[in-house]
Amino acid sequence: MKWTLSPLVTPAAARARARRAVRIVPRAGNRPGWSGRSSFPAPRTATDRQPKVVSARSAAGPRGAGARGRSPSGSGAGAWARAGPASTGRRGGQRSGCAAPGSSAISAAAAARVRRPGSWRYTAVAGLAVEHKGKAGRAQPHSPDSLMPVTVIGPRGGRSARPRGLTDRCAGRRLGPMCGIAGYWSVAPVEPETLAVFTDLLAHRGPDGSGYLTADGGRLGLGHRRLSILDPDERSRQPMLSNDGRHAIVFNGEIYNFLEIRAELQARGHAFHTESDTEVILRAYAEWGAACQDRFNGMWAFVIWDNVARQLFFSRDRFGVKPLLVMATSRGIAFASEAKAFAALSWAAGITAIRAGTCATITGPTAPLEVSRWWQPLDHIHAVSASYPEQVARFRELFRDACRLRLRSDVPVGTAISGGMDSSAVLAMVNALGVESVARRPCDWSRAFTVVAPGTEHDELEYATAACKAADVEPVVVDLFRRCNPDDIDEYLYLTDGMPLTNLSAWYLYRSMQQQGIRVSMDGQGADEILAGYYWDAMRTLRLEGSWLRRPRRTLDLVRTISAMTRGSPYIRIGAKELLTNSSTSLRRIAGRISRRQSREPLLFGQGHDAECREMTRQLPPLNSILFMAVNDSIQNLLQRYDLLSMSSGLEIRMPFLDWRLVSYTLSLPAESILGNGFTKRILRDAMAPYLPPKILRRKRKLQFQGPVRELLRGPLRSWIESFPDLGAAAAEVLATGTYGQVRDLGDRLVTKWNQQTGQRLASARIAALQKRHRADPEALHRRMRWMALPEGFEPSYQP
Length: 800
Hints:
Among the domains are: 3-165, no CATH class; 171-375, Aminohydrolase, N-terminal nucleophile (Ntn) domain (Glutamine Phosphoribosylpyrophosphate, subunit 1, domain 1). An eight-stranded mixed sheet has the order 2-3-6-21-20-19-22-23, sandwiched between helices. A seven-stranded mixed sheet has the order 16-14-15-7-9-8-24. It has a six-stranded antiparallel sheet with strand order 10-11-12-13-17-18, covered by helices on one side. The protein has 31 helices and 24 strands. By secondary structure, the protein is an alpha/beta fold. Helix content is 36%, strand content 15%. Mean pLDDT is 76; it is low at 1-149, 158-176 and 595-602.
C-alpha cells in the first residue's frame, strides 16, 4: 500500500503544516492521550479500530489561533480524516459535489474528479490532503479510512464561522428562519425603543438580524430576531406583511411540507415573492383561515395581526415543539418565545403558555383570550388490524418519510447521537435516504456529533461509534471534561433560564455543532414518549395488565423488560420483590399499595396533567393512554428544555419521531407491538434491523442524556463551586459520598444561589446595555422598523 502526498498540497506546504499539525493518537484507556506530531494518521492493524482523537486544543499549534482552538489551515472545522467529504458512494461525508467544509485545500474540480469510480481519493487531516492509491469506495486495511476517525472538540470548540467550501448553489437558497419572536398589544402607545429591547433580549435565538413593526397607532408591536440561514434577501425578513397590507406575521419554526402547500396555493392563483415558508403560512391563512393549521406538517409558533378585523391570531404546533408564552395584564397582552424577554416590560403579571395543539384570538388588548383546540388527536388514532410484519413495514415507511421531510434545508445538517436506540435510528435512516430523494436538500448533511464524559457511566462512545460505523459516518466527539469551562456557566444559566447542571452535556454538544458550521440538528427526542422508552411506562403497564393467573406470558415479558432496563442504572433500583408485588393485584392489595376502590386513572397519570387530554384517554387501552398523555402533555418540559439548550446557540432541532403521522400510527398499535418480546420500542427495533447492528438493536439498558454532575463539580467546575463558600463543607461531603439524588440536589442548590447572586444582576445589565445601544443609535432602530397605518376613519379607544 503506497501513500503519497496529493498534488493539491505541495511538499513545502505539507512540511509547514506538519510542523504545526494536529496531534493524532489512538484512544487510550478512559481518557484521550497525546502523541508526537504527525501530518497524517499512523497505520494501525485492522483489528485495532478504536477511534482516533483529534483535539481542537492542539489544533491551533504552537502559534495557532489561541483559545479558540482553530485548525492550522484556519478552516475551523476540525480534522476531516476520511474520504467521505468527497466520496463516491451514496454515503459518507460531503454529498452533492460540495467541497468539504473546513478543508480549503480541496477544490470543486478535485471533488468532481474524486467521484469517478476507481479514481484516487482524498483524506484531509487538518487541511492536509493525502492520496490513497487503493480501491475507491471501500476502506483499505491500515488506511485512515479503516480507523473510524473521531474528531474531539476541546476547549472553546473551534471557529464559529460557517464551513468553507460550500458551493455557490447553496449560498443563494432560502429557508424560513428559526428565530425568537416577541410582541404586545397595549392600551396605550409604547415607545419603539421598548419593542426593540423586548425583542433583542432574544438575540441569541436569532443573531443575524432583527425586525420590528408597529401598528394600531403604536399600541401594537411585533418583533423578530432572525437566524438568516444563508438567506440574504430582505424580502424574506420578518415581521412579514401580506401583499394587500392586511396581515403581518412573526413566525418561529419550520413548515416541512411548505413546498407542497406552496404548489397548492399557486394552483389557486397565489403569486409568491419569496421562497420562505413564512410567506406560505401568511398566504395559507389568507386562503383558509385557521383551518390552514391542519395542512401544516412541522413545528411552529406564529402570531398574525389582522389590520382590518383588528385581532391577533396565535398558533402553536401539535405537540408544542416551539414555545409561545403569553402575559395578560390590565395594560395589555404580550407574548414572547422565552420568559426572560418579558423583563423589558414594566408589566407585572403571570406568564402562561399557549397550549400545544391550540390556537387563540384576541380582539382587544384587554379582551379575553379565546382559546380553541385545533388539533384533535383522537380523530387520527384508529385500531390497527394488520399483521405485525405489516405494522413494521408501515412504521418504517412513515419514519423514513418523516426524516425525508426534515432533511429539507439550505444549510448544513448534522445528527446529534448519544449511542441510544433513538438517535442511532435517526442517523441510520438519514444516511440510508441519500440526498437524491430529498427536495431542497442540504449540501452537507451526514456529520454525526456525540458528547462523552470519559471514565464515567455516561460515556456511550462505544455505542455511538457502532451506530456511526453502520451508517458509514465519522463521529465528531465533544469531550465534556475538556470542553467544560467555569467561565461559561454564567452564560449557560442565563440563556437557559437557570437550567440544572445535568443539561450541560447537551448544551456543549449543540454549541459545538454550531461552531463546526452545523445549523440544523436531527435528534431522537420524542421516541421515548411514543414508544414506551421509560421504565415507568412498563411499570404502569405491568400494574394494569399483570396477572400470573390470566396472562402469565405477558406478565413475565413485562417483568423481564423492566428488570433489564433498570439493571445497573444510576437513577433507579427495582428489586425482584417490587416487581413481584406490582405484577399481581392480590399482592398489591396485601402490601397496601392500592385500595380496593382505587380507580385505574391514578395508576396512569399523576396530578396536574391537562384535563382535556386526560379525558380523551378514557377511550384508549392502558398503554396507549399512557403514551397519549406523554406525547400530548408530559413532553412539554422536555421540549422546552431542548428548545432553550439548542436555540441558545442558534441551532435548530428537528425531531422525526414527532411527525404527527408517525405519532398517530404508533398510538394506534397494540401494546405488544410497542412493549413486548423483552424490549421497549419493539417495532422501532424491528423496523431498523436492516440498518443498525445488533449491538444497538439488542441493547436494553437506558441512560438518560445527562451530564455527570459529580465529576464536573469535582473537576472542571471546582473553581466555580468554590465561589459559594457557604456550601463548601456540605458540597465536599456530598461530592465525596453522596448518592446520585443528593448530588443532583446539590447542583440545584448551586443554581438557586447563582440566581440570587448573579442571575438578576446579569438580566438587569443586559436590559441596560440594550437600552443604551438603541438610544445611542436611533437611526439604526428606525431602519429596522415598519409601520402599519390605521384603517381609514378608525380611531381606537381602549380602556385599561
